[in-house]
Amino acid sequence: MNKMELIGMLKEKTGISKSEAGTIVNIFFDQMADTLAVGGRVEIRGFCSFYVKEYKAYVGRNPKTGVNVTVAPKKLPFFKCGKELKQRVDP
User: Fold this and answer.
1) If you compute the radius of gyration of the chain from its CA atoms, what whole number of angstroms results?
2) Topology of 41-91 in CATH?
3) Over the stretch 65-81, which tens digit does the pLDDT of each residue have?
4) DSSP notation for 30-76
5) Residues with Cβ < 8 Å from 23, sequence gap 6 or more?
6) How far apart are CA 31 and CA 19, in angstroms?
7) Where along the chain do its domains lie?
């Protein structure tokens, strides 16, 4: 399912217009992204949680040339599946 399919499903199930459904979905995802951007955590009970994981700088190796390179510190978003979703996917 992609974003447009989600908007269509929301429109169909609630009876609201497509533009209103699009606005709701955009607000939802924008708010999630904004929360993660400032280092926050998003938790949807029973479904999943999203959080930011921080990595320190380290010395890596270029696999093609074998030269050591310094990898800068970084932050990456992570998804953790909830118990109810796990059970629903693999009963």
Assistant:
1) 19
2) HU Protein; Chain A (4.10.520)
3) 999 999 999 999 999 99
4) HHHHHHHHTT--EEETTTEEEEEEEE--EEEE-TTT--EEEEPPEEE
5) none
6) 18
7) 1-38, 41-91
pLDDT of 19-70, one tens digit each?
Answer: 999 999 999 999 999 999 999 999 999 899 999 999 999 999 999 999 999 9
The closest of 78, 83, 74 to 51, measured between CA atoms, is 78
Are the CB atoms for 46 and 82 separated by under 8 Å? yes
Rounded CA-CA distance 54/52 in Å is 7
Distance CA 78, CA 88 (A): 21
User: Can you read off the two tokens belonging to residue 31?
Assistant: 């708010």
